[in-house]
Description:
Layout: H1 7-16, E1 21-24, H2 31-38, E2 44-47, H3 51-65, E3 69-73, H4 77-81, H5 83-92, E4 96-102, E5 128-131, H6 140-158, E6 165-170, H7 203-214, E7 219-223, H8 230-242, E8 246-248, H9 262-265, H10 272-275, E9 279-283, H11 291-297, E10 303-307, E11 324-326, H12 330-338, H13 344-364, H14 373-383, E12 389-393, H15 397-404, E13 413-415, H16 426-433, E14 440-446, H17 447-452, E15 466-472, H18 491-495, H19 504-510, E16 513-517, H20 520-530, E17 538-543, H21 546-558
Parallel strand pairs: 1-2, 1-3, 3-4, 4-6, 5-6, 7-8, 7-9, 9-10, 10-11, 12-13, 12-14, 14-15, 15-17, 16-17
Helix pairs in contact: 1-6, 3-5, 3-16, 8-12, 14-20
Pathway: Quinol/quinone metabolism; 1,4-dihydroxy-2-naphthoate biosynthesis; 1,4-dihydroxy-2-naphthoate from chorismate: step 2/7; Quinol/quinone metabolism; menaquinone biosynthesis
Organism: Aquirufa ecclesiirivi
Family: Belongs to the TPP enzyme family. MenD subfamily.
Amino acid sequence: MAFPSGLVELIETLSQHGVEQAVICPGSRNAPIMLAISRNSAIQSFSISDERSAGFFALGLALHSKKPVILCCTSGSAALNMAPAMAEAYFQEVPLIVLTADRPQEWIGQWDGQTIYQERIFGLHAKQYFSYSTQANESPDEIWYRNRIANDAFWSAFSSPQGPVQINIPIKEPFYPEKGEALPIAKPSRKIQKWIAPKSLDIATKTFIQRQISISSKIVVSVGQFQQNPAIQSAVAALMKKGIPVLADSIANLSGIAFDSHDLILANTNMWESLQPDLHIHLGKSFVTKRIKQFLRSNDHKQEWQINPHPYDLISDPFKGVQHIFEIDEVDFLNELVLLNFSEKQQTYFQAWKKADEVVSTKRSTSINEWNELGIFQKIAQNLPPNNAEIHVANSLAVRYLNWVNFVPKGLEVFANRGTSGIDGCLSTAVGAAQGNPNLVISIIGDVAFHYDKNALWNSYVPNNLRIILMNNQGGGIFRNLEGAKDLPELEGFMETQQVFHAENTAKDAGINYIHVKNNDELLHALRHFFQESEKAQLMEIESNSSINAAALAEYMALFKG
């Protein structure tokens, strides 16, 4: 048989490790890999034609399953189109195993079709790179080496910090078995098991923490992007009761538990001095808005700790003041903190944050009846299902509105591609996450991000549990709110990405129910049934005016500047 050697063993080893899903981009050079995957009965395969969309679709699958997902493409520029998803997976720490089919080494740089330099094509955005030989060399050493690569690739993707890996696979013709010929049966494949023990607090670490807490009277905890974790939520609730203010973005999944209005509180710079901590403790990843980073960076006198059980080699220092990095499980650390006693001055500090939060909460709960995006987000928030749903919010302006409006009800998990914060692939990620998901998956996305990624709907995997809320303000509305950008004469022509498209035809092509909303009455009528069960996915396009939105947001922000 001429079928490339070692491929069925590669896929079988990954399957034995528990890899259950694969996204395959159609092609010729990768056909043998496709056959090895699709004929493995333990793996569910999806065929996605657009490689960029496929990458984010796989990302969504991995976010939902919490397991590595295989991503497979043909040779040439196909792999380059997966680079945005690889970067997002790297910084969001999502495990992907990317199999890139390649031309034989001797044809690289020889003007052969679909041939580029694929080795380490994702650079530092892949945790590891492997080259996998398919030559018909059945020596014991070659079989051992291939098996080692398969095991290494899985554990590299799965071990914390999780992330994407690339296996580049040069393949010679012929690619296909002869008509009616079965694939080779996988030879016995060795699965290498690792046992990963959690890092816990030793006596010396506990002593240091206790000593520093005892001399601190203004302790604040900040939580960046974090997947929903009941143990974290419980520990944060206990800390808040003990008088430790915890500041969290909407994407930290602590709505209703921590203070989530920090961006509006800190809009009043007159309050910065009184709210500055003497000890700042951070866990999770990035914040959406920069104001809290500016606030904390402006304090050169604080002590700063970072809780990160699995840091990369390069130190992350987003607040420009980290002094101690604790490679400790976040739950273990927070539970240890809950056991400690805090000073009376700490209670006074907590009350300052609580009072500021109450003032902001009163102002932002005022009903907005004018037709603008603030009011639209407010009304959507009031009609979200209380449970059995998750939110996938796109980048740029949409994710910021979740912080400015008290949007997310307690219990709903929020996902966002904030690893690189790009607009590409936000919808594809949601479609991927909706696969086999018992929850309603709600995608909230702007018009530019939607049209940039509408190939997310160019497949046969758009499930009926998907709800897309498309905010159409005819362009990149965020630029009308950015100081420096909003007054440039080039704003409309070169920055705002003005567009006049609607999503009706895209929805029809994808077999999705389409609703077009242009005012409050239409919105409220649509929301009565939008989140209910239906036989098809649903897309609600909400049309508003970018200039009116910007003016309303400026007026709204002025309420909090003091």
